[in-house]
Amino acid sequence: MEIKLVPGVVTDLKELVRLRGAARRAVLSGRRSPTALQAGAHRSAFRGRGLEFDEVRIYQPGDDVRSIDWRVTARRGKPHTKLFREERERPVLLLVDLNPGMFFGTRLQFKSVLAARAAALFAWSAVSCGDRVGGVVSGGIGVRTVLPRPRQAGVLGLLRTVIELQPVEPGDTEHGRLDRSLAAIEKMSRSGSLVVILSDFRELGERGSTLLRAIAMRNDVIACLVHDALESTPPPPGVYRFGSKNSRVTVDTSLGQVQKAWSQQFLRHREHLHAVTRGLAVKWLDFPSDIPAQRLVRRALSPVGRAA
Q1: Domain limits of the chain?
Q2: Is the pTM of this model over 0.90?
Q3: pLDDT value, residue 122
C-alpha cells in the first residue's frame, strides 16, 4: 500500500536521504581539535573507536590488571592478560522505536517522524566519519535487525527498514515491546560500540532496565527521549478525549490536580530512565518534537557525557 507523504506526519526514503548534507554539517560543527587549549574542547561522538581483541600473553609488570584473562590464568596456572588493538571502523548501532504510540504530535512533526529524521542524521554522520552503521527498528508489525555495514549500504539498509515500519495510524502501546529491541541491540553490540536509542520509552517493560544497563556497561550510549510538548504540559483548561480507537480516556484539565498530575507523570518517567543508568556511560537527551531534528542531533554530537 502506497503511503501519501504528509510532511511532519509521515516521511519517505527520499527525505531521509536528502538529510545526508545536513548530517555532514552537524558532524563538522560538533568537532574541534583534540589539542585545542581553550575550555570546552572536545571530540565528536563518532571519533572514538572501540578496542578489538587481539591475543593473550603472560602478564607483565605494568599491564592493566583489568585486562587479566581469568579463564586462561586459571587454566595455565600463570597470570595472562588480554591484548587489544584499535578498531579501524567502529560499529554505530541505532535503536529506532516506531511503536504506534509514536504516531502523535501537536507541533512541527510527529514523534515517529522526528525519530526517523534523527536516525538518518545520526547514520549519515557516522558513515561520514568512517564508521559502520546498523541497528534495530521496532514497529507495530515487529522488530527487525539490520547488521552493521560500511558506507552508504549500511545507512540505506537501516533507512529502508525505518520507512517500512513507520506507523501510519494511531494504535495501542504494548508493554514490554521495547525490551525485545533492547535485547536485540544488546546481542548485536560488542564492547566499544556506540549505541543511539531513539524512543519515547513508553513500551519499556520489566527487563528494560536490566537490558539498558547491560548495553551501557559495554558501550557508549546516547539515549534520546522523544516526546511531544503535550506530554509534559497539559493543554488549556477543558475536557479532552485521548487514546486510540480501542482505548480512550476523558480528561478535564480545568482541574488543578489534573494539571499537576499531568506534568508530574512525565517528570517521573524521565527521572526513572535517568536513574536506571546513573553512573554509566549514557548521555540522556530530551528530543522534543517541536524542535528540528538537525538542531537536536547537532546537540547530541557535542561532547559525549555521563548520565546526570
Answers
A1: 13-29+89-300, 51-86
A2: no
A3: 97
